[in-house]
Amino acid sequence: QYCIEKYPSLMETTVEIGIQTIKAHGKEKGEFLLGVMEKYLEKKYSAQNNVTAIIFMGACAPYLKNKSKVKSICDKILDMADSSSENLQKNLAKCLPELITFFSNPIKIANDLLESIQTSTDINKIRGNAYILAGF
Prior knowledge:
- The protein is mainly α and about 140 residues long.
- It is built from 7 helices and no strands.
- It has helices spanning about 1-5, 10-40, 45-60, 70-80, 85-95, 105-120, 125-135.
- Helix 3 packs antiparallel against helix 4 (about 70-80), helix 3 packs parallel to helix 5 (about 85-95) and helix 6 packs antiparallel against helix 7.
- The chain is globular.
- It starts with a helix and ends with a helix.
């Protein structure tokens, strides 16, 4: 945790390496990696760690055979968008383009995000929703 706070670029690099690893091995190991991330989330670690696990779940989603799990991943991404970490918000948005087809109503979600950006007073929520909207 201390390293993440002192060196935020370390966290960004770690997430990027994780995403690239998933892209390289997702076809063969996507289901296994998703199971690891789901168990990790059950442990209730810090919000930053949970966001990272959700980012990795998003990266795994295109490789899953059971597409019903993708809906819960999409919901988790939207729920975590107002994290206080700008780097994590950027990384959440990065995994969205490959998931957009799995969202049940992407136009409504985009409209809701835009409305939230215009009406919210919470800077983290505004910034997070802007990144998520950009990821769409």
